[in-house]
Structure formats: C-alpha cells, structure tokens
Amino acid sequence: MSYGRFCKRYRQFTVSGKVVSRVGRKAGRNVEVDWSYPTMPLVDQESIWVTVLRVIP
Question: How far apart are CA 27 and CA 52, in angstroms?
Fold first, then answer.
C-alpha cells in the first residue's frame, strides 16, 4: 500500500467515527517510557541491596 493510499484510508477511518480518542500533546511536554523490557537483578554484595534493572537492547 502506498503512503498516499494509507493517508486516504486513514482519513476515511477517522471520519467514520470509529476512532476512540486522539491524544493531543505538545512536543517536549511529556515523556512516555516503555517498561516492558526484561529485568535483571543487581545485588550489592556489601549491603545485600537488590536493584532491578531493565535490560534495553
């Protein structure tokens, strides 16, 4: 599908009223973080303190 056709079909879809909501945001105001990465425990041997690290590929 070409980009032009995609835009046309997306416009038709949004006009049809099937869109639940569009989030209006200003650039640089919010930061969204995806926390779905695998985790790995990091253990401090002196204090036995366990910290969970996110492994981001």
Answer: 30
Cα-Cα-Cα-Cα torsion 11, 15, 20, 22, nearest 10 degrees, comes to 50
Taking all residues of the chain, what is their mean pLDDT, rounded to a whole number? Answer: 81
CA 39, 42, 45 angle in degrees (round to 5)?
165
- Name, in order, each residue with C-beta under 8 angstroms of 55's C-beta and a sequence gap of 6 or more: 37, 38, 39, 40
Give yes or no for a contact between 37 and 52, defined as CB atoms under 8 angstroms apart. no
> 14 is written with which tokens?
């949004």
pTM beyond 0.70, yes or no: no
